[in-house]
Amino acid sequence: MKSVRGVVVGAGVVGLSTAVCIAENLPLCSVTILSEKFSPNTTSDGAAGIVLAAEFPDILLERQRRWFKDSFDNLLAIAQSQHSPDAGVMLSSGWQIFKEVPTNRKPFWSDFVTGFRTMTDGELKRFPDHKFGQAFTTVKCECSTYLPWLEERFRKAGGWVEQRKVNSLQELSDSFDFIVNCSGLGSKQLVGDASVYPVRGQVLKVDAPWLTHFIRDGDGKTYIYPGIHSVTIGGTRQEGDWRLHVDKGDTDGILDRCSRLEPSLKKAKVLSEWVGLRPSRRNPRVEREWLQLQGRMVPVVHNYGHGGWGVTIAWGTALDALELVRQCLKEMPQQAKL
């Protein structure tokens, strides 16, 4: 008999990863995912899903290294297993190129990806506007395949799934003993976090099966990521922009910039266009608190605000959230006596 009831709010890559970690590691917990949207309608579904990272300003670098390594190792193990095609996880090699030499030529995550090195002058010749580059092999996640695979894994671990919008944490306090908030941009309303903001991203899927290596401009605004069924090209990083419709000007800009890096894209057929809002924050919020809900103290673990790095660090922050849930469960008897 499962004795503790927990709920995870949100079914993007962070919510599903967190729910799987809890359900598989805490067998005494009955875990439910509540979300207004599930795959294929989440922000994560449109993510390019390439695993590399930016540095968050106020989080210990050691913690960020752990988040990256845990996530990379988890996805690498899937990519190298029989589950790779079902999970939509694959190895991806390519180049990150810079118009100016970056201050940090060797980012904190370079030790964890495979074969990281500085590009040679010969390799850079094809990118005349760029002065510096890095070559490496990382992991790519096709989220429209990966999310349903994670959800199925969650159900196999005994998890429950319910599609409904959560308007307030108050409405959950009667049914659950702990709450894990993975609501992304929804945290602006759900927990009143004014520091969460959207960064609009527009991408195209194109048919270009001849492309096998990724190319990413270091500014993060232009990228070409070959996948299993198509090539994702992008993009935009428009802070504070809530528009969810496709912008023709952005589409033209993406095609123009990407074709300059990879001229053969002029021959590629556009299959689809997509817009999503990255749930951004100065730093991701991965912490716990006790909240008074409907007259009782309920532990709430927060895991949101990953911005454009959800796929990159989801599993690492999910393991942190699991540890925070464990701490809450240890404190629960004392809390109940208060």
Describe the structure.
- It is an enzyme of class 1 (oxidoreductase).
- With 338 residues, this protein is an alpha/beta fold.
- Helices cover 30% and strands 30% of the residues.
- The chain has helices at 13-25, 61-79, 84-87, 121-124, 143-156, 187-190, 248-261, 310-337, and strands spanning 4-9, 29-35, 89-98, 114-118, 132-141, 160-163, 178-181, 197-207, 214-217, 223-226, 231-234, 238-239, 269-280, 285-293, 296-304.
- Strand 14 (285-293) and strand 15 (296-304) form a beta hairpin.
- The protein is globular and about 65 Å long.
Largest sheet entry: 9 strands, mixed
Strand content: 25-35%
- Radius of gyration in whole Å, from Cα? 20 Å
The quaternary organization reads as single chain
Family: Belongs to the DAMOX/DASOX family.
Cofactor: FAD
Subcellular location: Peroxisome matrix
Enzyme class: oxidoreductase
SSE layout:
Layout: E1 4-9, H1 13-25, E2 29-35, H2 61-79, H3 84-87, E3 89-98, E4 114-118, H4 121-124, E5 132-141, H5 143-156, E6 160-163, E7 178-181, H6 187-190, E8 197-207, E9 214-217, E10 223-226, E11 231-234, E12 238-239, H7 248-261, E13 269-280, E14 285-293, E15 296-304, H8 310-337
Parallel strand pairs: 1-2, 1-7, 2-6, 3-9, 7-15
Antiparallel strand pairs: 3-5, 4-5, 8-11, 8-12, 8-13, 9-10, 10-11, 14-15
Helix pairs in contact: 1-5, 1-8, 2-8
